[in-house]
Amino acid sequence: MLLAASLLAACSRPQVFHQESYVFGTRVDVAVYGEDQAQADAAMAAVLGEFDRLHRAYHAWEPSELTTLNEGLARGDTVTVSDELAAMLKDAQRLAATGDELFDPALGSLIALWGFHTDTFVPQRPDMDKVRALVAARPRMSDLVIDGNAVSSRNPAVQLDLGGYAKGYALDRAIAILRDKGVHNALVNIGGNVMALGAKGDQPWRIGIQHPREPGPLATLPLYDGEAIGTSGDYQRYFELDGVRYAHLLDPRTGEPAHATESLTVLITPRADAGTLSDAASKPAYIAGDGWRQQVRNFGIEHALRVAADGRIEVTRALRARLQLPSGIDMAVVD
């Protein structure tokens, strides 16, 4: 009897359970810390199922509710959309305005011109006359008219791509699902956009910030309950041509990939829609280059880090206090 009790105690010892998938064009990982593997497996499967639903519903170039909307906008139609998509578009409008429209999901046609509406990138520049014409047309989220579930556009150049919004939205959905399934401690990672629920036993979850030019982390830090972290960088979706790197993060002012920054990381302290903000807020700061600090202030973010194109690393004082650095890494602290 004592042996049986000992074995049962060992079986119920808390541990980390994992499930992985490939969604949103990247690897996703869901980790649950707990004792009940059946509960953890069911909750993680529900999260991955939700990711698959979001991927199919709002894909920017494969048939989806979003492509149906884009087809209607191109014809000048008013399109009836789901409650969820209407809410997402309203929120994306707000976030685009907060970021001075430097990152704007209405730039789908520009993203397609640069060849990023595919999972494999051909190393070639687009027809620059078409790029200049789109820049002149100035498609913006503010051109959308959203009346309940009816969506139309004042500007026929608007084509929507939620690629810089959906991963963060998916983080918030994941945390909501995990809580609903009775999970209190988990970590969700969608291609470097990470959100924490609870802790890993008596320790916080610990994550790394990817170095944009080296395989290892630039730094590590604890991530506490309800916090989310997101990075925009030029090292995942890009191609190189004649020694120049062209990444998918496009500057609407020029119509070309932004080149002043290698990566920009923001940490969002607990608040409503922290996951969504971790994805969306890093984009305008990345595109702003040396003006990144004002952009993160626009969103009320105090924890941020930038790696400039020349390799300089700048970090806010609040985030620097959280980081553990490998030897040889120097950072300039900014207020």
Strands, helices and their partners?
Layout lengths: L1 H10 L3 E9 L2 E9 L2 H21 L7 H11 L3 E2 L2 H16 L9 H6 L14 H10 L6 E4 L2 E4 L12 H15 L5 E5 L2 E5 L7 E6 L6 E7 L4 E6 L4 E4 L2 E4 L2 E2 L4 E2 L3 E8 L5 H7 L1 H6 L4 H7 L4 E6 L4 E4 H4 L11 E3 L1
Parallel strand pairs: 17-18
Antiparallel strand pairs: 1-2, 2-6, 3-5, 4-5, 6-7, 7-10, 8-9, 10-15, 11-12, 13-14, 15-16, 16-17
Helix pairs in contact: 2-7, 7-8
Quick tags:
three-stranded antiparallel sheet, disordered N terminus, 18 strands, alpha+beta, 11 helices, 335 residues
Structure characterization notes:
By secondary structure, the protein is of the alpha+beta class. Helices cover 34% and strands 27% of the residues. It has helices spanning 2-11, 37-57, 65-75, 83-98, 108-113, 128-137, 166-180, 274-280, 282-287, 292-298, 317-320; strands at residues 15-23, 26-34, 79-80, 144-147, 150-153, 186-190, 193-197, 205-210, 217-223, 228-233, 238-241, 244-247, 250-251, 256-257, 261-268, 303-308, 313-316, 332-334. The strands form five sheets. A nine-stranded mixed β-sheet has the order 1-2-6-7-10-15-16-17-18. It has a three-stranded antiparallel β-sheet with strand order 3-5-4. A hairpin with a 2-residue loop joins strand 6 (186-190) and strand 7 (193-197). It is globular. Residues 1-10 have low confidence and may be disordered.
In short:
This protein has helices at residues 2-11, 37-57, 65-75, 83-98, 108-113, 128-137, 166-180, 274-280, 282-287, 292-298, 317-320; strands at residues 15-23, 26-34, 79-80, 144-147, 150-153, 186-190, 193-197, 205-210, 217-223, 228-233, 238-241, 244-247, 250-251, 256-257, 261-268, 303-308, 313-316, 332-334. The chain has 335 residues and is an alpha+beta fold. The strands form five sheets. The protein has a nine-stranded mixed β-sheet. Strands 3-5-4 form a three-stranded antiparallel β-sheet. Strands 8-9 form a two-stranded antiparallel sheet.
